């Protein structure tokens, strides 16, 4: 019988990898997710998996999940990043370096929705959906109880905040501790690749990350997601009975603009529907090169949404104890470096090892959590610095001055 019970709030990549890692170590774990089901969140796009992120996945996941993840990952690696102005004139761009060899099981780029569905595989008895975290209470015996909006609760020895940049656990534990708003407003979208090429996009963009830097302050990125195997086909072959949603090859479309150039207040901007956001991008790029300006007209409005870019600098450690965080809940960063999800799964790997030592009676919980946090702060800080450097290259204007509390 497990001597340790861990409650995880949030079923994103970090929370699910942690659940797998803890189960591997024999730790009792329950994951609570606000979405209504495994298919309740269809906002999705491409995620880059770094060498460090891939190793963390291998540290946490069962072999069956890894095989399915590799089969549904991208069958290509971005050959390079190309940058242009709005007239398709070449510009300087950072190089993309990845030492991994070309192998059939390499995991470099994944579709976010498919990634989540693969991570949920084998966790039916662990993940509870439609559970909105409300608050927690520390008990006299050192344990902690989490309360949910539906009136239910659960008690464990450790409560993990894996609920993202808007973490409700962080708000309860550290009121006023919020990531800094960088002032950049981003529209993400899924653009089916077949439609884009059929309507004039040059074939050269198929195997590379393309970034367009407009002189008007509007910037667009196109990142290809070409599946090694269609997700339903891979599941039918490797995991019969597990449902993966069908997804065609696509471009992850990204539109970035600083709010000063947006000329639209946040209430109106974030209130726009997916179709409205798509129209905004088309309007703002209407004067661009013909091969670029209409790309977003093929975007899926149901997979088009807006977010503010935020960052946690510096990474502030939480008081060592039964409440601990991973991922964006503690080290939010802009997606420009493609390293946020990798940092989250690295957190999961490190935290599962730390808590496994507690499970075996080798360490005290506070000591294990403190060591995890110190190591996490080091690599997460490096990831944030990389993300900010790339964001400054692509956007130039970021609001990096501390904001008043």
Your description of this structure?
The protein has a seven-stranded mixed β-sheet with strand order 5-4-13-14-15-12-16, with helices on both faces. The chain has a five-stranded parallel β-sheet with strand order 7-2-1-11-17. The protein has a three-stranded antiparallel β-sheet with strand order 8-9-10. The protein contains 14 helices and 17 strands. It has 405 residues and is of the alpha/beta class. It has two domains: 5-76 and 105-180 and 311-395, FAD/NAD(P)-binding domain (3-Layer(bba) Sandwich), CATH 3.50.50.60; 182-309, D-Amino Acid Oxidase, Chain A, domain 2. The mean pLDDT is 92. It is globular and about 65 Å long. The N and C termini lie far apart (45 Å). The chain is 35% helix and 22% strand.
Shape: globular
In the predicted model, the low-confidence regions spanning at least 5 consecutive residues are none
Order of neighbouring strands in the sheet with most strands = 5-4-13-14-15-12-16
Mean pLDDT: 92
Number of strands: 17
Instruction: Give the helix/strand class.
Output: alpha/beta
> What amount of the residues lies in strands?
15-25%
Largest sheet: 7 strands, mixed
**What percent of residues adopt helix (DSSP H or I)?**
25-40%
The gyration radius over C-alpha positions equals: 21 Å
How many domains? 2
Distance between the termini: 45 Å
The assigned CATH architecture of the largest domain is 3-Layer(bba) Sandwich
Say what the CATH topology of the largest domain is: FAD/NAD(P)-binding domain
Q: Class of the largest domain in CATH? A: Alpha Beta
- Oligomerization status of the protein chains: single chain
């Amino acid at each position: 019988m497990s001597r340790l019970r861990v409650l995880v709030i949030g079923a994103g990549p970090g929370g699910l990898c942690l659940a797998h890692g803890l189960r591997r170590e024999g730790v009792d774990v329950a994951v609570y997710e606000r979405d209504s089901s495994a298919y309740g969140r269809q906002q999705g796009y491409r995620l880059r998996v770094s060498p460090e992120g891939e190793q963390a996945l291998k540290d946490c996941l069962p072999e069956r999940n890894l095989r399915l993840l590799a089969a549904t990952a991208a069958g290509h690696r971005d050959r390079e990043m190309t940058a242009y102005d709005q007239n398709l004139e070449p510009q300087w761009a950072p190089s993309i370096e990845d030492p991994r060899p070309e192998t059939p099981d390499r995991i470099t780029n994944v579709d976010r929705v498919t990634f989540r569905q693969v991570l949920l595989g084998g966790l039916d008895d662990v993940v509870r959906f439609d559970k909105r975290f409300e608050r927690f209470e520390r008990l006299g015996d050192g344990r902690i109880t989490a309360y949910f909006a539906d009136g239910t609760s659960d008690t464990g020895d450790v409560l993990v905040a894996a609920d993202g940049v808007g973490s409700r656990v962080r708000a309860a534990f550290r009121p006023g501790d919020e990531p800094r708003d960088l002032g950049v407003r981003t529209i993400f979208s899924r653009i089916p690749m077949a439609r884009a090429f059929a309507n004039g996009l040059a074939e050269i963009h198929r195997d590379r990350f393309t970034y367009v830097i407009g002189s008007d302050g509007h910037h667009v990125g196109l990142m290809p997601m070409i599946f090694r195997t269609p997700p339903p086909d891979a599941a039918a072959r490797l995991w019969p009975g597990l449902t993966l949603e069908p997804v065609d090859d696509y471009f992850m479309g990204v539109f970035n603009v600083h709010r000063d150039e947006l000329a639209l207040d946040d209430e109106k901007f974030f209130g726009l529907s997916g179709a409205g956001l798509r129209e905004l991008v088309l309007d703002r790029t209407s004067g661009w090169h013909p091969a670029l300006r209409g790309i977003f007209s093929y975007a899926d409005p149901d997979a088009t949404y807006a977010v503010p870019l935020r960052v946690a600098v510096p990474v502030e450690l939480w008081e060592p104890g039964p409440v601990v965080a991973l991922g964006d809940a503690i080290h939010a960063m802009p997606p420009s470096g493609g390293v946020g999800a990798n940092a989250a799964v690295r957190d999961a790997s490190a935290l599962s090892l730390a808590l496994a030592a507690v499970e075996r009676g080798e360490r005290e919980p506070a000591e294990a959590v403190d060591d995890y946090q110190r190591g996490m702060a080091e690599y997460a800080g490096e990831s944030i610095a990389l993300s900010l450097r790339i964001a400054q290259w692509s956007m130039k204007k970021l609001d990096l001055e501390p904001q008043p509390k």
